[in-house]
């Protein structure tokens, strides 16, 4: 064991074990998806800042969600693209742990932001007359900062438990990014505490927030059914449907990864699910909000109309 334990300075990400031609094809596709992710979320942020009609608590949280989605993609996709071009190119130990820390931070933050958005919709639909008094800008800022702070705090705990571990050769990570479970498999020490903390963290940021969202939307549905006006009902459903689609994509992928039935090779299944979670979710979110939200669509038409007039 003494010869195998060494000071690790870099890791090798194995990525996807495919042929060179397939890897080049994936490089082109993932590069396109990466650009679309940055462009789509950038457009959402631009619309929210330019259109004063979108300066409301709901879109304030949406802007933070767009920032998280862009950060998600920027954290994992560039290294994945590098590995597709040069599978033998390693990532430094510091860079790997930084990627792990940021990924966990963004994952927890997005979980909590989705809860804040569901709470905002609950107040808007179930308590419309008190909405302005409850969802003040001070409250919105506190809720958003709580989401980010909790993400950083929980990720710091995982990082603090990960740093003291010794690692064995070969330092090959069977993943396309520095996923914490894949890193723990390389440790030459007992990692039960780390694994239990990862499981506890996954349960706390999935079960608790998802339960809150389900309760919020159960109340929202009851309130919508009591509305007499069909037009008001449609507007309420329109503002909630896009958020529900995002929640379904995010939590659906996470639940399948951690609680769903596993066939064949579970490691490979989780790798591809995390690819969807890291690349396709951030790309789809702005499309969902732009296609299913009438206010965002009207804002986009207004901006495009101004550009054509110029």
Kindly describe this structure.
- The chain has 310 residues and is mostly helical.
- The protein has helices spanning 20-50, 57-85, 93-126, 131-134, 137-162, 180-184, 192-225, 230-259, 266-292, 294-309, and strands spanning 5-6, 10-13, 91-92, 167-168, 172-173.
- Strands 3-2-5 form a 3-stranded mixed sheet.
- The longest helix is centred in the middle third of the chain and has 34 residues, at 93-126.
- The model is unreliable at 1-5 (pLDDT under 50).
Concise structural overview:
The chain has 310 residues and is mainly α. The chain has helices spanning 20-50, 57-85, 93-126, 131-134, 137-162, 180-184, 192-225, 230-259, 266-292, 294-309; strands at 5-6, 10-13, 91-92, 167-168, 172-173. It has a three-stranded mixed sheet with strand order 3-2-5. It has a two-stranded antiparallel ribbon with strand order 1-4.
**Largest sheet properties:** 3 strands, mixed
- The stretches of 5 or more residues where confidence is low (pLDDT under 50) are 1-5
The H/E string reads: EEHHEHHHEEHHHHH
**Total number of strands:** 5
Computed structural class: mainly alpha
Question: Strands of the largest sheet, in order across it?
Answer: 3-2-5
Name a few traits of the molecule.
310 residues, mainly alpha, three-stranded mixed β-sheet, two-stranded antiparallel sheet, 5 strands, disordered N terminus
Sequence-ordered SSE layout with sheet pairings:
Elements: E1 5-6, E2 10-13, H1 20-50, H2 57-85, E3 91-92, H3 93-126, H4 131-134, H5 137-162, E4 167-168, E5 172-173, H6 180-184, H7 192-225, H8 230-259, H9 266-292, H10 294-309
Parallel strand pairs: 2-5
Antiparallel strand pairs: 1-4, 2-3
Helix pairs in contact: 1-2, 1-9, 2-3, 2-9, 3-5, 3-7, 3-8, 5-7, 7-8, 8-9, 9-10
């Amino acid at each position: 064991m003494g010869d195998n334990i060494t000071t690790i300075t870099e890791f090798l990400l194995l990525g996807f074990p495919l042929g060179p031609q397939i890897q080049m094809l994936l490089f082109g596709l993932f590069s396109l998806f990466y650009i679309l992710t940055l462009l789509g979320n950038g457009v959402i942020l631009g619309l929210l800042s330019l259109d004063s009609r979108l300066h409301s608590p709901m879109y304030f949280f949406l802007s933070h969600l767009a920032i998280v989605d862009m950060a998600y993609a920027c954290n994992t996709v560039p290294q994945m693209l590098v590995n597709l071009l040069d599978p033998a190119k390693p990532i430094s130990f510091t860079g790997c742990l930084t990627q792990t820390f940021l990924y966990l931070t963004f994952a927890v933050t997005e979980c909590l932001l989705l809860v804040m958005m569901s709470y905002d919709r609950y107040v808007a639909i179930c308590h419309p007359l008190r909405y302005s008094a409850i969802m003040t800008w001070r409250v919105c800022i506190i809720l958003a900062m709580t989401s980010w702070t909790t993400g950083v705090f929980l990720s710091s705990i995982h990082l603090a438990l990960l740093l003291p571990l010794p690692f064995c050769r070969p330092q090959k990570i069977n993943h396309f990014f520095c996923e914490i479970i894949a890193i723990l498999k390389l440790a030459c020490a007992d990692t039960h505490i780390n694994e239990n903390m990862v499981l506890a963290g996954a349960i706390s940021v999935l079960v608790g927030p998802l339960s809150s969202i389900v309760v919020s939307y159960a109340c929202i549905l009851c309130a919508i059914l009591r509305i007499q006006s069909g037009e008001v009902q449609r507007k309420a459903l329109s503002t909630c449907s896009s958020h529900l689609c995002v929640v379904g994509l995010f939590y659906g992928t996470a639940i399948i990864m951690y609680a769903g039935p596993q066939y064949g090779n579970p490691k490979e299944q989780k790798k591809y699910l995390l690819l969807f979670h890291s690349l396709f979710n951030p790309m789809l979110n702005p499309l969902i909000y732009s296609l299913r939200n009438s206010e965002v669509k009207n804002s986009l038409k207004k901006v495009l109309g101004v550009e054509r007039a110029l």
